[in-house]
Amino acid sequence: MTLAVAQILAHPGFLKLELMRRGLRVEGDSLAALPGTPRFGATGHALFGSAGDLDLELPRGTFATVPIEPRLVERSPYRLVHDGDVWAVTADAADAPRTRVKVVPPSSFFAQRTAESGVPFGQIGTVHGPYLALSPTNRCQFLATSDRCRFCGVGQKVAAHDALPVDDIVEAVRVARAEHDVNMVHLSVGWLGTDDGGVQVLEPYIAAIKRHFDILVAVDALPPKDDGWIDRTYGMGADAISYNLELWDPALFAQICPGPARVIGRERFLEALGYATTVFPSGGVNCHLIVGLEPLASTRAGMEALARMGVVPVLPVYRPFKGRDLRADGDVARFEPTLEELRDLYRDLHRAVRREKLGLGLVRDLATVTTPVEARLFSGPEGLFRRLGHRLSGTRFGRRTSARLSDLRRALRVREVGLLDP
Amino acid sequence: MTPDAPEPPEGRRVRYEIDRRPLTLVLLSRLRGQIMLAALFGVFAAVTTAVAPPEGLSAAGWKTLCIFALCAVLWATSLLPLAMTSLLAMCLVPLLGVMPAEQAYGYFGSKVVFFILGALMLAAAMARTGLSTRVATVVVRRFGKTPRRLVAAVFLLCAAGSCVMSEHAVAAMVLPIIVDLGRALRLEGRSLLGKALAFALAWGCIIGGSLTVLGGGRGPLAIAILEEATGRASSIGFLEYSLFALPMVLILLATGAVLLYRLRPEIADTSVALQALEERIRAMGKATGRERALALVMVVTVGAWALAGHELGLDTIAIIACAALFALRVVTWREIEDGLGWGIILMYGGAIALSAAMSSTGAGAWITARLVPATFDAPEVLLLSLCVVAMVLTELMSNSAVVALLLPPTLALCQTHGIDPRAATMAIVLPTNFAFMLPIATPATALAMSTGYPTSSEIARKGFILDVFGFAAVAFLVFVYWPLIGLL
Fold first, then answer.
1. Domains in chain A: ranges and CATH
2. Min CA distance, A408 vs chain B (Å)?
3. Which residue of B2, B13, B26 is in closest CB contact with A194?
4. Helix pair B342-361, B111-129: axis angle to 10 deg
């Protein structure tokens, strides 16, 4: 079965997948009319994304960050068109309908530098609609070695920086929030060669963000050596944690992520994830499995196993992103799924997280990934209350409330039992 | 951290513990205090507004009784700080129309409150100048030639110290000396000498604190309640108080000495400990001018309390002594302000106002008439039964709170039984200091336990023996001594 272009354009779930994988052509007067000037090939924020990506809001509040750099999208059938200020996505096929979309103007975030250290914001993070990701240090000891994750595009174009002043990160959050309805700050840290998985470096940033804003904070790190650090990650203010295994298949994990596989080990990933589910709220622990780097059956098995453990599986598709041409990853085996296979996968993802009663409020509106919440688009019509709940939780009031409730949970669950030895 | 890892910015390094119980349970346990408070105030509001006064009790008396019951629960459970409960009592009395606000708040001006204020200021000055620590160290150094004499020195020092300043302050002052001694003598956790030193600290403070009104706040509070309840017709002077309590203190000192003697020290030589104390004294340097001036003021003050307390008033002497300290530049106001427990002062003010309301509305007399069985008509039996109640309560709650709780109804009861209110006051106030069994009962016991030598079960076992002897001592007072001196 092949999905018709009209079906794809009418369905925000399919459209997001297609646009993220194949990209969107922006040509002629559309390019000229696009808010802001796309800076193809710019190296400003190569850590997380490139200026060659465009943020769109598709129907049903679905955010998508799609590649538009001409050399990456020349074979995409999808085009961005406009009529005055009204933007739409269409396809090359005859009589292809137009799907109205909102173009999120390029954030001024990327044009500014931090006040204290003068680092361009684009080098410490990225903002795509409601998704804000920051990295107080972009060091990762795997990067310059053969242990580097094969798919990783970090650090190739920018200089490594050490832990930035806390005020810089607070400023970045303030600037991003001024422009976008940011509902969560994702703080990431690479492999620093420490037992704590890097969270000790993040602690003052998390504390400062929590002190200044009613906002959720997610930490993306590698599993620490012992579980006490997981308690501490939650205690210091993180509302969600990601230990991304990336691949479920053990052999492929060792091959594609040799550093984490050798230094941390797959078992420790699973142990840490399991332990974290006893600390963080339901839905607060997630694990990325990249779709397309291993056979789909393996991803599906991992998805089911993680959901049974209480971990929310997040399934990003291996796609052109961060300005990288995937053809550069010559040594990475590809298992590219069809759109129909992806539909079935995301439908089952949604069913799995619902079956295990996992909270989904902490993994939503990731413009760069089809989230488990968006997977609902593939699993049939939703009830009225669920739709209302989803909509309410996306409002400013809903975002503040969920941040405050999350803080309340921590206040109840966590007790300070002294200071650590210096 | 490897050399390549970035240094995290400075921040607090806190250790956390995760409570994994169901969230509802966590919520209930965390909010237990607030839930109990809400329930308590709900019941209080319902009872005061909806329930008619029982027969024989006026509306004002009924409301006073409700306030008293509310405060009793709050004092016993510490759902609110003791001082806050007292302040609340003081504001509820006019709020419920028991008496005008001016009158209720006016009780805060009791001279006892100012005596406590003065005594606390003097104690703060002693702690701030280092005089108390110097005296303690020198005394232990001088008399602690053998292990047994070391224990005896600590015991008697604490007892003597608690006669002139709060026993809590004495315990806090002597504790570092005990810790130093234990360290110098390399005493292990199970050391009998260590246990003896710790018990000497706790028991010395508790027993000595019973001899004078300066040993803690409960004595002045009891006197203030007595004065308010009797319309100032009855009071207890500085020397009188000590005279009424002396035999009991002697009996307890002897009991404590025997119990300490039975803890045979495992070492014979204390020279190392004495050397440590010597170093401590050397580190303090010679006595400063302000220490000498303070010592002089203290000697004169205690003498004045003893000789002219009735004529001049304990409060007046205390305040003049404090003024002298400032005049002589012994302390600064900032030093006194930092070392003063204002909460204690607030607590007494409120408790006095409540007791006055209990007395003036007849609520105290009404409740005691219903609580005490007719078989307790004999004054001695009545006083001893109240003594037992006070002993039990004081193991669980602040001794001042026990005084505030028990004394007003007791005084009302004594009026109807023809008992001298001074005897009733002493029968309540003396056993409220028998906090020998539980570390929660008084800071002195808690500090003794914090040394790590006595276990809680040892404290309870030996404390029980002291409690029994304490009760026997009070019985001796009631049956023999007080009748002998005409108090009963």
1. 5-104 (no CATH), 108-409 (3.20.20)
2. 10
3. B2
4. 160
